[in-house]
Design goal:
Blueprint (H helix, E strand, L loop, with lengths): L9 E4 L10 E12 L6 E16 L2 E9 L3 E3 L12 H9 L1
Antiparallel strand pairs: 1-2, 1-5, 2-3, 3-4
């Protein structure tokens, strides 16, 4: 089963029309039917935490904070608690 995104989730952009692949964003709000410019049309999308270049035009770069859902993959789940051991924690355990 493919992991799903939810508000607060960190996600990586895996496809972009403007070279944003690999950027990390925070998902803010799911939009089930967002209208993009042609040729993309209407798509399920996520509003993210910042404006990113969408594509270049003769007058400059157009910015957008909405990304098609299929262009994002989750890299964390805000509902999961993850314990991270630090170097100090590991050294203390070794001395015991």
């Amino acid at each position: 089963m493919k992991p799903t995104l939810k508000p607060g989730c960190l996600a990586m952009i895996v496809k972009s029309a403007a070279g944003n692949e690999g950027k990390i964003v925070t998902c803010v709000r799911y939009i089930p039917n967002y209208k993009f410019v042609e040729p993309f049309g209407y798509r399920p999308s996520w509003q993210v935490d910042r404006q990113l270049p969408a594509y270049g035009t003769s007058t400059g770069t157009w910015m957008n904070d909405t990304i098609p859902a299929s262009w994002l993959i989750p890299i964390n789940d805000p509902d999961l608690e993850i314990e991270i051991e630090t170097k100090q924690d590991i050294q203390l355990k070794e001395k015991v």
